[in-house]
Amino acid sequence: MQQAKVPVTLITGYLGAGKTTLLNRILTEQHGKKYAVIVNEFGEEGIDNDLVVDADEEIFEMNNGCICCTVRGDLIRIISTLMKRADDFDGMIIETTGLADPAPVVQTFFVDEDVQAKVALDAVVTVVDACHFLDAVDEEHELAEQVAFADIILLNKTDLVDGDKLNAVKAKISSLNRMAKVIETVKSQVPIADVLDRGAFDLSRVLEFEPGLLDEEDDHEHDENIISISLKTDNPIEPEKFSNWIRGFITERGVDVLRTKGILNLSGQENRYVFQGVHMVMDSAWGAPWGGDARSSRLVFIGRNLDEAELRSAFDGCTVAA
Amino acid sequence: MMAAAGFDPAALGLAGTGNPDVGARIISPSVKLSESPAVGVHPTFTVIEPAEARAVIGYGDGTIRALGLVLDGAQPSVVAQVSATPIAAAADIGGAGVLIGTDGGELLRLGGSAVTRLAETGGPWVGEIAVHSGKGLRAFAAAKTLTVLDAEGAVVFSASDHPSTVAGLTFSPDGTRIAAAHYDGVSVWSLTDAKQKPVRLDWHGSHTAVAWSPNGQFIVTAMQDKEMHCWRWKDRTGMRMSGYPSKIRAVTWTADGQYVAASGADTVTSWDCSGKGPSGKPPLEFGYVYDGVVRQVAAHPADHVVAGGYSDGTVLIGAIEQETAMIARPASGHAVTGLAWTADGATLVATDESGAVAVMRILEPVVS
Q1: Residue B134, min C-alpha distance to chain A (Å)
Q2: What is the ipTM of this complex?
Q3: Using CB atoms, which residue from B44, B183, B206 is nearest to A84?
Q4: Where are the extended beta strands (E) located within chain A?
Q5: Pairing between strand B251-253 and B259-262?
Q6: Contact B162, B187 (CB under 8 A)
Q7: What does the pLDDT look like over A26-40, one tens digit per residue?
Q8: Cβ–Cβ < 8 Å for B226, B242
Q9: What pTM value is reported for the model?
Q10: 3-state secondary structure of B17
C-alpha cells in the first residue's frame, strides 16, 4: 500500500522579513503535531521545536543535459535520514536563508527518487517585508526569485506602510507572480490553514489553487526582469502540437522559466490535462472531467526574458483551428 | 568494507552441535533461508561482526540489534540504544566490534553490548566510516572533514579540504591512502606523507559512494546522476558508466578486483575491469525481477558471485560470468536496505525496510 507522503513546506523570504516568526507561529499553533524543521542557520530568534536540523546549502548541478537542474545535496541526505527515523512526522518545514535561491530546493523534490518516494513539497511560502520590498527587489535578485517561486506570499508588516505604498508593493508582486495567493499580514499572523496542506504542487489541486490563472492578461513587453505571463484560449489544443512546442521551449529556455502551470482543454478529451514545471522539470496528469464546465486552456509562465507576444502566438499555434 | 582477518566459520555455529536450522526453509536446492519478522523500523546499516559471529543492524529509532548467524528464525535482540540515529557503520579492526556514526555527530564503538565514544564532531553528522584492519586504521567523515584514527583512537590524519560533504570513503587495499568522494570527484590522500597534496580525480557532479578495487587498480564512484565513474589509478584515466534508470546506491568489487557490480538497474550489472578496464565492454547482467529494481549489491568474498537486493525485497545470488541467478529470498514487498556476506562466503544477511532480517546459508557453491 502506498503510504501518504509527508508534506514539506518551504519558507523563504529576505532577511528580517518575518520567516522565523511565521515558523514559530506554525509550531506553537499546531500544538500536538510533530514537525521536523530544517534551517540553514540558527538565527537570533530561537525555534520552538524538538527537532531542528542544521542544513549546509550544498547546491549540486545534475549532469542530465539540463544546465539549470540543480538539487540540494544536504537536503537529500537530511530528508532520507529523517524518513528512516521511527518518528511519524506530520510535516517538515524548511526555512532558507534570506539569500537562498528556491530553485534547487524545489527541484530536489522532483529529481531525487529517495526524497520523492517519501515526502512531497506542499507549497513555497515567501514572506515579504512590505516596508523594504520595493527598495530591495531591483537590487537583490534572490528577492524577486523568491517571490516568483512562491505559491503563497505573506505580505508582512503592512501596518508599517501607507495605502499607496502597499498598493505599489502589491502591483510589483503581481507583475512577478500572478499565480501566488497574496495574504496581507502583521507580524506574520495568518491562519495556519492558509499556509499548510495547500497541495500547491499536487496536480489534482491546480485548479482550486490558481486565482491568477483566471485573470485577464495585462500587456507586457519583452522584459529581462522576472515577469509572469498568463495565456488563455477557448479553442481546443492539439496534443501533439502542444507537446512539441512546450518541450522545445522548456529545453531551450528552461534557465529563464522559473515556474510553469497549465490546465489544458485537449481536443477530444473528457478530462482536463494539468501540468506544472520548475525550470526544465515538468510534471503532468489528467485532471477532473470538464463535464458541463466551459472548456478553455490556461497557461502561466513566470520567468525572465519572456516575450508575451511570442508566447501567445506559439500557444495559439497549438490549437486545433491553427 | 575490509575483510576481517582470523575469521573462523566454526564460530558461526555452522558446524555446531544440535539443530540450528530449526527456523530455516529451503528456497532453492542451494539456499536455506531463515527470516525474522518485520519490526516496523527502518534499518540504517547492516554489518557482519565476525568475532561475535553475528549480524549487527542499526535502526532508525536508535536501537542497535544483533542476530546470531544460525538459521533458527530468531528475532534480532536489542544490544544497545544510542541517542541519535545511527547512519553509518563498519566492522572494527580485526572484525571485533562495530564502529557506528550517528546524526548526533558521534563516532561510537559497539563491543559486545557496550557502547563507547571514540570521537565527536560537535554537530556535523558522522555519515561515512571505513576500516583498514591490516594497518589498524579507522576513518570517518563528517561534513567536509575526514579523520583517520589509529587502533588506540589517536588522530593520525585529518583533512578538511573537500569541496562538499564527504559522501563516501575507501582505503586503498594496502592502507597507505584514503579516497573521499564528494561533489565534482574524489580526493585521494596519502597516509604516509602528510605533506603530499591530495590527488584529485575530477568528474562533474555529485559522487555519493566510492570503492577501491581490491587489486588496487581502479577507484569507482556512484553518482547522484544515475551513473558510475571509474578511474584507473595508474594513469588517472576516467571512464563513465551510464544508462542506469535509477540512482545507484551501492557498488561492490569482486575479491580479485576483476568485476565491479552496481545497483540502479532492473538487473545486477557487472563491469569487467580486466585488461584496460571496462571501456567499450557492455556490462554483464543477471537477475531480472518482474517488478523491482536493484537497490543493494554485495560481492561474494571469494568468487565471481554477487548478491543483489531488490526494491520488492527479493534477494538473488548470481554468477557474474554465467549471467544466471538463483532466488535466495522471495519478495517481501519491502525494499532491501542492506546486504552482508560472512568472510567465508557461506552466509548472507539481508535487511529490508520493514526491519526484517533474512539469514541465508549457501549450501553448495554458486559457481562450479
Answers
A1: 31
A2: 0.90
A3: B44
A4: 6-13, 35-39, 51-54, 59-61, 70-72, 91-95, 119-129, 152-156, 181-184, 227-233, 257-264, 271-278, 281-289, 297-303
A5: antiparallel
A6: yes
A7: 999 988 899 999 998
A8: yes
A9: 0.90
A10: coil
